[in-house]
Design goal:
Order of helices and strands: HHHHHHHHHHHHHHH
Structural class: mainly alpha
Transmembrane segments: 21-39, 45-74, 86-104, 151-169, 175-194, 251-270, 290-323, 379-400
InterPro entries: MFS, MFS_trans_sf, MFS_Transporters
Main location: membrane
Number of strands: 0
Radius of gyration: 21 Å
Organism: Fodinicola feengrottensis
Keywords: Cell membrane, Membrane, Transmembrane, Transmembrane helix, Transport
Length: 414
């Protein structure tokens, strides 16, 4: 049995090529650093520096929006100059605000530092995906993306556990270690990227894709927005379910971290397997549909959990997280396939940045919508979320067919 588990984990976590293995290593290092930062930074800013929760939240929101806005020119730069070089540059850029954060005693310094960090972090995500597209081909891109996500969950968990030690110590030096530790892992990651194969850029003069091509590609934007609806599952897991468990069910409070642990373990073990069959557009569409069905089932189960006794509530909530995780893993694989497949090879950076615009609704508006629906409408709020996922179930295949048809037409014309 142990040998079977080891073989499965090796297949799940070990990439097939040397470039893939190097990218897995960079993902592990980066996610450990991110886990350090995310688990302790807000506590430091509020309880040590003295900022209000609103100030910290507004600064991080500004950083996220700046990253989305400037991700497109950074993606375009990756297409022109080569994604490896741009990824290294944004890694170095990201280390600078991480070094400055502990010293940001004034709000405006914090805000400016957060915006620089947000832009660099978004730029890294965009350029890194272009690196994957340039070093991998076809189904290998989806397979590697799945492995990277599994590794990401391992690293985030390890980083969060280490951050817990700093929070428990509750002294400035320990908090400094969180930021500077992330800065160090980021710089090591930059050095590792230099060992990847060079992916030639298109050059400023001979660029094969117009600088506004992705923004004017309505079918691609539609695919990004519709498939992005599944990202609401992350907000539900991190905010919606914890609040629901505590305020609306008889389940014990200790179940909240348990549900998060179930999600993390399932993603680590099964994300690569969930990506099988989603390497082609037809397969990705089927996987996306199944994922939305799973998310609808999650909403129904979560709603039922408020009307049953303690033991049943625990079982139903665990089942709802299993369904949520299945939908999360499947939709991720489907999005990876469509993000890479519908983008022209000379514009993977620019198109990848535009595809990330599909995250605006779920990640910027999603927390407000989820908390309002579940807090004010209770069980009916879950049914409203099920309707949102139902829209994705219906509109997802239509958007994918539209995008595929326009690619075929363009190929025929050229």
């Amino acid at each position: 049995m142990a040998n079977v588990v080891v073989r499965h984990l090796r297949t799940t976590l070990v990439a097939e090529t040397s470039a893939g293995r190097l990218l897995v290593l960079t993902s592990l290092l980066g996610s450990i650093g991110l886990g350090l930062y995310q688990a302790g930074s807000a506590v430091y800013f509020v309880h040590v520096i003295g900022f209000s929760g609103v100030q910290v939240g507004s600064g991080l929101s500004a950083a996220g929006l700046a990253g989305l806005a400037l991700g497109i020119p950074i993606g375009r730069l990756a297409d022109r100059l080569g994604p490896r070089e741009v990824t290294v540059a944004v890694c170095v850029l990201k280390a600078i605000p991480l070094a400055v954060f502990p010293l940001a005693g004034h709000y405006w310094v914090f805000l400016l530092t957060a915006v620089v960090f947000g832009v660099a972090d978004a730029g890294w995500n965009v350029a890194n995906e272009a690196v994957i597209a340039g070093t991998m081909s076809g189904s290998h891109r989806v397979r590697l993306s799945a492995q990277l996500r599994s590794i990401y969950n391992i690293g985030m968990t390890a980083g969060a556990l280490l951050a817990g030690l700093a929070v428990a110590a509750n002294v400035p030096a320990a908090y400094f270690g969180l930021f500077w530790g992330y800065a160090v892992t980021t710089l090591i990651t930059a050095a590792l990227y230099l060992r990847l194969p060079h992916v030639p850029g298109t050059g400023a003069v001979h660029a094969s894709v117009h600088r506004l091509a992705a923004l004017s590609d309505l079918p691609y934007l539609a695919v990004a927005q519709v498939s992005g609806l599944a990202l609401l599952s992350e907000t539900v897991l991190e905010i919606g379910l914890p609040l629901w468990v505590v305020t609306q069910t008889t389940a014990p409070r200790w179940l909240v971290p348990g549900l998060l642990a179930v999600n993390t373990v399932l993603v680590v073990i099964f994300q690569a397997r969930a990506a099988r069959g989603a390497e082609t557009i037809p397969g990705a569409v089927r996987t996306l549909q199944i994922s939305f069905v799973a998310l609808i089932a999650m909403c129904v189960l979560a709603a039922v959990s408020a009307a049953v006794p303690v033991w049943a509530a625990v079982l139903v909530l665990v089942a709802s997280v299993v369904a949520l995780t299945g939908g999360e893993m499947g939709s991720s694989a489907a999005r990876w396939c469509m993000r890479f497949s519908f983008a022209p090879e000379g514009g993977q950076g620019q198109y990848g940045a535009v595809f990330r615009l599909g995250q605006i609704g779920p990640r910027v508006i999603g927390p407000v919508v989820v908390t309002a629906l579940l807090g004010q409408c209770h069980a009916m709020g879950w049914l409203a979320l099920a309707v949102v996922f139902g829209l994705g179930l219906v509109a997802g295949p239509a958007a994918a067919r539209w995008a595929q048809r326009t690619r075929i037409e363009k190929a025929a014309i050229s």
